[in-house]
Write a structure and sequence with these properties.
The complex is a heterodimer of chains A (138) and B (150). Chain A is 42% helix and 25% strand. With 138 residues, chain A is an alpha+beta fold. Chain A has a 3-stranded antiparallel sheet with strand order 1-6-5, with helices on one face. Chain A has a 3-stranded antiparallel sheet with strand order 2-3-4. The longest helix of chain A is centred in the N-terminal third of the chain and has 32 residues. Chain B is an alpha+beta fold and 150 residues long. The chains are: A alpha+beta (138), B alpha+beta (150). Chains A and B meet through helix 1, helix 2 and strand 4 of A and helix 1, helix 2 and strand 5 of B.
Chain lengths: 138, 150
Amino acid sequence: MNHKADDVMMNNAIYIILVIIAFTLTYFIISSHVSSAAVWAEFYSKELTKVVNLAEPGDQITLDVHKATQIAVNKEVPFNEIFSIDNQAKKICVKLAKGRQTCYNFFNDVNLTITSQNGVDFGIATGVNTLQIKVEKS
Amino acid sequence: MKNKKAQLPYAMMILVFLPILTLIVGSIAIGSAMFFSDEYDFRKIDAEILNYKVRSCLKDNEFDFSAQDLEEKIYNMCQIKKISQSNDFFITIKINLEQKLHLGVESESSCILSDKNKQFPVCETSSIQKNGDEITITTGSSQNKKEEKI
């Protein structure tokens, strides 16, 4: 029996297993950051503010918020609590984790109303959940 | 008889390999944590949109820049919330390089520090020609996200 070949194979197998473990660990570390609630709450609050700042009274804004709803389900946040608008302070807040929300101010002097029932509209036909916001004169 | 002595250096390589692997994984973990924990800068976009709003408004409407109620008219006609006491945004309007209006707490002079510190505003400047005058609009945003506990 070729013991030498067996030993070389065994040694290489250990190295390969270690590399696979390391790369799996790296993948999970990065994906945990990418799908973190804090990152997405910041993203949605800022992108929503951008759209609102460019909106005119009478506009109806429809946004794809599918990722937000997926995170909300995982974090047990009710859909009607994900997005909130404070028209007095001109502030949009996004809550994707229990106990904290990320807010961002807009400067467009308009009143916003979330018209989606239950906080978001479930895109049963399209497979994409959306948020509807009505823009009115302040 | 098996030569165990000859295999020892090969097995010892794992002592070099493991720290290198740990270093690589650790660096990626620290790097991604630093990247994702840092807020993505939205001040420039805010400043650009504000500038666009004011510029379009000044183009489309007639303003008396010597009027007492200019500030109020800018707010109403340009559809901008009151930012006079705001630390987040500022607007400066100059006619032929003479300042006619300044709204907000921050000023143009602090724009230069925006790269060094996120508390300072990122600015956007544009000019338009109207009635033979050059109107220069400078806007800035120093707004950062606000984390609230509820």
